[in-house]
Amino acid sequence: MENNNWIEEDIKTQNIIDTLSSNKKHSEKELLALINEISKLFNFHINQLRYSFNDNKSLFYLRFKAYLLVIDSFTKLCLTFSTNKEKRALIDNILQILNESKSMLKLFVPLEENEIKILNNLIGQQLYYYTHINYIKVQNKEIDYLLEEYHLNLEKIIHGYELSFESDFGNKSKLKEIFKENEKMIFLNNASFLLLKMIYKFNYHMSEKKYNNNPNFIKIVNLFLEYSKLSKYKNIKTILEFEKVLIQEFENSARSLNNSDRIDVFDEKIKLLKVDTDEYKQLIDIIIDLKPQVI
Amino acid sequence: MKKLIIEKIDALPPLPKSVLELEEFRKMSKKEPLDLLKIIEKDPLIITTVLRVANSAMFGFVSQVETPSRAISLLGINFTISLALGSVIQNLVKSNLDSYNVSTEDFMFSSNLASSLVNTWVSKISFDLKEDLLLPAFLQETGKFVISEAINDNDQVADFQNQLELSNNISAVEKEFIGFTCARITANIFKHWHLSHNLIFSIGFVEDLEHCPKDYIKKAKILEIIKILCDIRNPLSDQNIKRALHKANEYGLDTEPLLQSIDSIKFKLENAL
Fold first, then answer.
1. Does the residue B7 lie in any domain?
2. By CB atoms within 10 Å of each CB, which of A106, A234, A269, A276 scores lowest?
3. Which of B61, B77, B271 sits opposite A96 (nearest CB)?
4. Which tens digit of pLDDT belongs to each residue from A110-148?
5. B88 and B101 part of one domain
6. B49, B73, B92: which is the final residue of a domain?
7. Alpha-carbon separation of residue B271 from A48, A56, A114 (angstroms)
8. Alpha-helical segments (H) within B29-103
9. What is the ipTM metric for this complex?
10. Window B:117-136, CB contacts with A under 8 Å
11. Max Cα separation, chain B?
12. Contact B77, B36 (CB under 8 A)
């Protein structure tokens, strides 16, 4: 009976992933139903983890690994949606379900420190790996609200990086410094990219005068500079000066990441921008220019 | 007695605006974290609860979670909404249910059981219906706090408890002593708080289908079945399951999915013990 439940859930997982990865266009109702199915799937995992924790510890450890694998599958699915205009709106919904399931698991099961660190690292990475992908609509929103929205997204990236850092990036206490440095570069690259997107989106939709001296914009600048490696630029007065810092930070971190084992960060970001070419045409050109030329 | 109940409802403090806003926010298909933050920031009780929970050891956040925005980022939007709504309900249930001879923990258990039934059973009937009934099912017994207090004020606790022992039907006993069912009182409390029509009508016409507007009949029928199963004194007892299945049959609802949901919830509860 128990095994049948697992097989059934595995088939469901496969079906959800297949349906969402297909090229078929889904109605809003169909997508909502799929999101509901994902939510139910994670509830199933949480319940199984709860029961096995009390009854059978070795089974619990196996199920915990299975749970992490399912999280990983859905996280990878989200990555494939990042360059798909229709499906990228689902990323936030799916990541929220993953995040919530981790909170529920911590609430219901007295996990060991090691497991909490693994979960917290996943929560953190989800925030600093994916927040910059969010598409923020400008239409029908006041500039104050928009700036607060970007500030909150920047905070999310920072909260995520700090949480992963404090969790030893998933309890990998013996990690080499180079790994930790790479994670910091991913954080800075995504944070600077988010704010560059903000400036170019605003440039496309409104005049600079509208937000140059806005206290919420100044809050964003100050928050970013607290974490930036470019500490010499502390007295930024204009949007242009801030943009220069962001480009510099973006370029430095992207070059550093390209020197390690990662995929080409410049190309990765250009692909993301090309989903909305009109708004980001200028930024796409800038990043193409920053990209090191292969001789 | 009716007058006393009306006075008690009128004397209830207004429901914080944040609850209405949270409920509206919960229903949105696209939930902006900034909007949730703006709702939470207006209510010190909610902020305190969310931060207290986020800083508890079970979540293992090394740095202090000092701002609601950090709590939302780390705990997730839906989890934060549940915490926020829970904190208000907790505040609401400060009074007791002594007249029913049950504790507030029993009340919370029944309310959570009702949510589980909506999630497992009603979602099989329709996704929209599930969304519409989650909150009414969770809150439909709120009126019991007012009833309990009124019974106590009238020195009828012993008689009320004796009658509850003799009868399987709490609603019938409530009506005998108070003149109204709990459903009607809960609906009036929510009317006093200017809550949504969906909430007031779905709950208010449970066990009164004769006067129920057409659009709410199915909801009232489902809530009645959930009410029977989540009986605050005997949740999921064999007798109540039998009554609920009989009612489902009478209302033309497929009993098979209902039975499956009951079995699945019972299995989980037994294994959790």
1. no
2. A234
3. B77
4. 899 999 999 999 999 999 999 999 889 898 899 999 999
5. no
6. B92
7. 10, 12, 26
8. 33-41, 44-54, 68-75, 77-92
9. 0.87
10. 119, 123, 127
11. 57
12. yes
